[in-house]
């Protein structure tokens, strides 16, 4: 009798355990299904707002697609076009810068002023920029025979004296070279200067002359 009661209780316990296990499995299955359903519903809702910034950016640009500027196809403006303008003086202007020569020695030194006058053919080759004329001028002497003038201390003063040459007409022009040096052994010198290229000598357009006034 007692063993029969134990068997009945054991079978009831097994039945209750089976029901409990089945219930747990059902709950777990329902939770898994519910989770999958929730993920399926939530994922689209989180992804939908993403295109909004793109549409707003398109709306801000008036519905036209924007493009980034390409540095290779959009060259920047440079000042090289202005640099291409001719800077050389006209040939006529060079002719007006030829004139007589005035020298002044307001210093306390006895000085000698030497001149290397450029030949007219070489000067024309420089102004015209012709390769053939330049080659021809290289074969010939570039300068005339040197000339010089001696000045005593303070001779000519700050105003200067007009000088000339005994064998040819003196017209100082662009490219002529001038140098002055003391003759008392002090080693003092001035120059060399290049006419119409250095600040000295100076051009007096009113008197049509070049002026070399030595500085003490």
From TrEMBL:
<feature type="region of interest" description="Disordered">
    <location>
        <begin position="54"/>
        <end position="80"/>
    </location>
</feature>
<protein>
    <submittedName>
        <fullName>Uncharacterized protein</fullName>
    </submittedName>
</protein>
<feature type="compositionally biased region" description="Low complexity">
    <location>
        <begin position="64"/>
        <end position="80"/>
    </location>
</feature>
